Amino acid sequence: MLLSKNKQFLAEDFSCQRIASYQPFNAVDGEGIRCSVYVSGCLFNCKGCYNKVAQSFKYGELYTEALEEKILTDIGHEGVQGLSLLGGEPFMNTQVCLSLVKKLRERYGLTRDIWIWSGYTYDELCNESEDKQELLSYCDILVDGQFIQELFKPNLAYRGSLNQKIVDVVKSKISGEEVLYSI
Ligand code: SF4
Fold first, then answer.
1. How many structural domains is the chain composed of?
2. Which of 65, 109, 154, 157 is most exposed, with minimal Cβ within 10 Å?
3. Model confidence, pTM
4. Ligand 1 center to residue 182 CA distance, Å?
5. By residue range, what is the domain housing residue 98?
């Protein structure tokens, strides 16, 4: 049974503004070469979670201005396509994620894309708290939905279970309905 969570899991109540890991220049978290930030903390507690240790909001290291500057500098390197935000749950850590995506857009405009992995679905986020909707507004591609072990399938591109979708957020906003991203 999936957790019902509408406007309950507010970042301001839970986030300790920590990250579990930062992986610069990888080629696995989305298309092209990417810089990936794995934030700490997620309340969904999916059975079979691939990153259980990062469910704790206290796990990992504090997100500092120095780390943020390093990430932004890395993203500026030639050949980097964009930023990936994973977790943990990025939308339960909007203080960290909003700070980073806003500065990314200020510095690089639309020359870098933003992919986000979330246990929330696109529809849920469209009706969520203001900070979550704001983070969604910066997102180009959303890999959405909680992990469901019974629907696990190996080798799904960028997803773990069949219920999860790769949503083209930019096209979805334009068309007014959910548009899936074609790989
Ligand atoms: S949403 Fe992701 S990080 Fe959160 S419990 Fe589920 S699998 Fe783990």
1. 1
2. 154
3. 0.96
4. 24
5. 14-175
Helix (H, G, I), strand (E, B) or coil at 96: helix
pLDDT tens-digit series, residues 88-125: 999 999 999 999 999 999 999 999 999 999 999 999 99
Q: Is 55 in the pocket of ligand 1 (CB under 6 A)?
A: yes
The CATH number of the domain holding residue 78 is 3.20.20.70
Separation between Cα atoms, residue 124 and residue 144, nearest integer Å: 10
* Ligand 1 centroid from CA 40, angstroms: 11
E-strand stretches of the chain: 18-26, 33-39, 61-62, 80-86, 113-118, 141-144, 165-168
The residue whose CA is least distant from atom 8 of ligand 1 is 49
Which residue type occupies 27? A
For residue 52, the ligand 1 atom closest to its alpha carbon is: 8
